[in-house]
Amino acid sequence: MMVLKAIAVWLGILGLAITNGAVRESVLLKNFDRSVAFTLSGVLLIAAILLVAALSVPWIGRRPLAHFLWLGLFSLVLLVLTAAPALVAWARGMVERR
Predict the structure, then answer these.
(1) Which of 23, 52, 66, 67 is 20 to 30 A from 36 (CA-CA)?
(2) Which contiguous run of DSSP H or E holds residue 63?
(3) Strand, helix or coil at 1?
């Protein structure tokens, strides 16, 4: 049950990240310098992730520390699995531009 809750929280954070990217592209980059827009976008995403994490702790419930460490590791694996294809594509694009 805890794994399903962790996946639900992770999917919520994924949705926030996608929304953050859309806001960055449609609002921040049009109104701020590129470096400022990306910095603001990063700060907003960090704040959103911290808020979701703080709000999800009571929903997940009290567990031993080891459970939360496993949840963190599980979240890291999900992050790597979803981010790796984008990083590979980005790296290939950087190599092709040379």
Answers:
(1) 52
(2) none
(3) coil
List Cβ<8 Å contacts ≥24 apart for 65-69: 67/2
% helix, strand, coil for the chain, step of 5: 90, 0, 10
CB neighbour class for 49 (10 Å; exposed up to 12, middle 13-18, buried from 19): middle
Question: Are the beta carbons of 24 and 37 closer than 8 angstroms?
Answer: yes
Residue extents of the structural domains in the chain: 2-97
What pLDDT shows up at residue 38?
A: 94
Q: What is the token pair recorded at 63?
A: 């567990």
